[in-house]
C-alpha cells in the first residue's frame, strides 16, 4: 500500500475528492490500482507489490494546474508527503535531462541553473523540516515542498527550451552550411517536420480553405467510424469527400486521414457494441470497414492512421493477442490496397493514465513495443499530445514532460507523427462534457487559466519543443475551428465559433514560416530568459 498525506493542494476547483490520479511502474508502465481519498490522505492499493509512482493533477501555483508524478516508491504503512515527493521527482528529472540532453556544462548563472539551485535549496529545507508526533508533516513543510516544486518546474521548462533552441540551431546551421536550398530532398532531411491542421466536416467555407492553403503543409481529415457508418452497412461519405476533393484538386495539398479504426469511447458506432464479446464477428466488421474506406480514398490519401485506442481497450474485452491481430489485419489490408501509402498506428493516452482505471488495458509503451516485435510493418508511431481537456489522457502537463514523452517513444527507433497537438483557449471543465471513465474534473492549466493569449503563448513554446525533436516527422494541430459539437477538443481550434481568428493562428503561421526558413523563433530566446515573468504576465493581463 502507498499512502500520501497532503493539505489542500490537490482539491479540484469543482470540489474535493475528485483528483485525477493513477499509478505507473518501472519504465512508465501502467500499474492497475485502487485509489481513494480518506481524511487528507490518498490511499493507493496496487495489484502488485512492486514499487510504483503516483501521477496526480495538482495546483502547482504559478506553474499551473498540472498532472505531475512522484519517483518510484516502495510500499509502506507510513504516509509520504505528496508535495515533497512531487518535488523530489522533478529535481531528479531535471538532473536526468541535464545529462541526457548534453547540457551538463551550463554555467551556474544560466537561468535554468539559477532556478534549479533555488529549487534544490527549498527542497532541502523541506526535507529536513520535521513536525511532531501528532503532526509529522506540517503545513510549513508542505509549503516549502510546494515552493521547491514550482521552482523546479520553472527550471525544467527553461532547460527544455534551452535544449530545443540548441538542437534547432544546430539543425538550421547544418542546413545553411551545406547550402541545401537547391536540393529539396536534402532540405527535408535536415528539417523534416511538416505542420498540418485537422479539419472537421461541420464547416466548409472559402475563408477556411484560404487559411489552410496559406498556413499549413498538409490537412488531416478525421474518419470517425460512428460518423461514416452511423447505421450498419449505411455509409455517409459526402461530408468527408468535399474536404478531400478540395485539397487534392484545388489546393494541391497532401491529405492524411484517420484513424480508420478508433476503438475509443466516442468513436465506436452504437450498433457495433452488440458484438463486443464476439471477437470473430468484430474482426470481420473491422476488415470490411477498412476495406471500404481505404478503397474509396486510396487515390487521394497519402498517409493513413489505421488503428487508435486499441491499447486502452475501454469498449471491447480484447486480449493482447486480439489487439495485435486487429492491428496486423488493418495494416496488411492497407498495404495490399495502397502499397505506396504511409501507415501509422496511433498510441492512445501516451502517458498511460488508463492503466489504473481499465484493468484490461495495456501500457501504451508496451503496446508500441509489441507491435514492433510482432513484425507489423508500419511507417511510424502516431501520438496524440493534447492538453488542458477533461477527456481521458488530456490533462495539462509542462514542457519537460512533453519533451520526455517524445524521447521515450523515440527510443523505439520509429518515426513519430503527432496526429493531434493542442490546448484550449478557454478552461474546460467536466460539466462541458459527458464524463467517461478516467476523465478529470478539470482539464488543468499552464501558468494561468486558459485564454486565447495563453493558448498562443503555450503554442509558441510547446510547438518549438516538439519541432526540435529529430524523430518527429509531422505535427498536426488538433482543430482548425471551434464548433458546438466539436469531437476534438472544446475551444481547441485556431478560429472561434464566431469565425474570429485567435492569436494562436498567427503564432502557428509565424512558427511554421520560421521553421521552413531555418530561423529559430525570436520569442524563444526571451522565454528562456524570462519564461514565467514578463511574457506570461503580459498574456494574463491582456
Quick overview:
With 542 residues, the chain is of the alpha/beta class. 41% of the residues lie in helices and 15% in strands.
Globally, the shape reads globular
> The CATH topology of the largest domain, please?
TIM Barrel
Low-confidence stretches: 12-17
How many structural domains?
A: 2
Helix content: 40-55%
Number of strands: 17
Distance between the termini: 47 Å
Strand percentage lies at: 15-25%
Biggest sheet features: 8 strands, parallel, barrel
Rg estimate, integer Å: 23 Å
Question: How would you describe what is shown here?
Answer:
The chain is α/β, with parallel strands linked by helices and 542 residues long. The chain has 16 helices and 17 strands. An 8-stranded parallel beta barrel has the order 9-10-11-13-14-15-16-17, surrounded by 6 helices. A 4-stranded mixed beta sheet has the order 4-5-1-8. Strands 3-2-6-7 form a 4-stranded antiparallel beta sheet.
Amino acid at each position: 500500500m502507498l499512502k500520501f498525506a497532503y493539505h489542500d493542494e490537490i482539491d479540484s476547483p469543482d470540489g474535493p475528492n475528485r483528483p485525477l490520479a493513477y499509478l505507473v511502474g518501472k519504465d512508465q508502465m501502467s500499474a492497475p490500482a485502487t485509489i481513494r481519498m480518506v481524511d487528507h490522505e490518498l490511499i493507493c492499493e496496487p495489484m502488485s507489490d512492486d514499487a510504483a509512482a503516483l501521477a496526480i493533477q495538482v495546483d502547482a501555483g504559478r506553474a499551473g494546474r498540472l498532472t505531475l508524478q512522484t519517483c518510484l516508491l516502495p510500499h509502506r504503512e507510513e504516509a509520504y508527503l505528496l508535495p515533497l515527493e512531487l518535488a523530489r521527482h522533478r529535481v531528479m528529472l531535471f538532473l536526468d535531462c541535464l545529462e541526457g540532453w548534453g547540457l551538463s556544462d551550463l554555467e551556474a548563472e544560466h537561468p535554468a541553473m539559477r532556478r534549479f539551485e533555488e529549487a534544490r535549496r527549498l527542497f532541502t529545507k523541506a526535507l529536513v523540516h520535521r513536525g511532531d508526533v501528532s503532526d509529522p508533516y506540517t503545513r510549513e513543510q508542505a509549503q516549502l515542498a510546494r515552493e521547491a516544486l514550482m521552482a523546479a518546474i520553472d527550471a525544467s521548462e527553461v532547460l527544455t527550451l534551452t535544449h530545443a533552441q540548441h538542437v534547432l540551431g544546430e539543425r538550421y546551421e547544418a542546413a545553411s552550411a551545406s547550402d541545401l536550398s537547391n536540393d529539396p530532398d536534402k532540405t527535408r532531411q535536415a528539417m523534416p517536420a511538416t505542420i498540418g491542421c485537422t479539419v472537421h466536416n461541420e464547416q466548409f467555407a472559402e475563408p477556411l480553405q484560404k487559411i489552410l492553403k496559406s498556413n499549413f503543409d498538409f490537412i488531416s481529415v478525421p474518419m470517425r467510424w460512428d460518423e461514416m457508418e452511423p447505421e450498419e452497412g449505411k455509409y455517409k461519405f459526402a461530408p468527408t469527400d468535399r474536404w478531400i476533393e478540395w485539397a487534392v484538386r484545388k489546393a494541391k495539398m497532401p491529405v492524411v486521414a484517420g484513424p480508420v479504426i478508433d476503438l475509443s469511447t466516442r468513436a465506436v458506432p452504437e450498433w457495433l457494441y452488440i458484438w463486443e464479446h464476439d471477437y470473430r464477428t468484430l474482426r470481420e466488421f473491422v476488415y470490411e470497414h477498412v476495406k471500404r474506406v481505404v478503397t474509396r480514398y486510396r487515390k487521394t490519401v497519402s498517409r493513413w492512421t489505421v488503428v487508435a485506442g486499441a491499447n486502452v481497450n475501454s469498449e471491447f474485452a480484447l486480449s493482447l493477442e486480439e489487439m495485435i491481430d486487429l492491428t496486423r489485419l488493418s495494416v496488411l489490408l492497407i498495404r495490399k490496397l495502397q502499397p505506396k501509402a504511409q501507415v501509422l498506428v496511433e498510441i492512445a493516452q501516451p502517458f498511460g493514465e488508463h492503466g489504473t482505471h481499465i484493468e484490461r488495458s495495456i501500457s501504451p509503451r508496451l503496446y508500441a513495443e509489441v507491435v514492433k516485435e510482432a513484425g507489423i510493418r508500419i511507417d511510424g508511431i502516431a501520438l496524440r499530445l493534447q492538453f488542458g481537456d477533461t477527456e481521458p489522457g488530456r490533462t495539462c502537463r509542462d514542457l519537460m514532460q512533453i519533451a520526455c514523452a517524445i524521447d521515450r517513444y523515440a527510443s523505439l527507433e520509429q518515426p513519430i507523427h503527432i496526429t493531434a497537438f493542442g490546448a484550449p483557449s478557454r478552461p474546460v471543465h467536466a460539466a462541458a462534457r459527458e464524463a467517461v471513465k478516467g476523465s478529470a474534473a478539470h482539464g488543468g492549466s499552464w501558468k494561468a487559466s486558459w485564454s486565447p493569449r495563453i493558448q498562443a503563448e503555450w503554442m509558441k513554446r510547446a510547438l518549438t519543443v516538439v519541432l526540435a525533436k529529430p524523430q518527429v516527422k509531422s505535427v498536426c494541430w488538433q482543430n482548425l475551428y471551434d464548433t458546438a459539437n466539436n469531437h476534438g477538443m472544446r475551444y481547441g481550434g485556431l478560429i472561434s465559433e464566431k469565425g474570429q481568428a485567435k492569436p494562436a493562428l498567427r503564432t502557428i503561421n509565424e512558427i511554421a514560416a520560421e521553421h521552413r526558413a531555418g530561423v529559430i523563433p525570436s520569442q524563444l530566446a526571451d522565454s528562456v530568459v524570462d519564461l514565467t515573468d514578463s511574457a506570461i504576465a503580459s498574456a494574463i493581463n491582456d
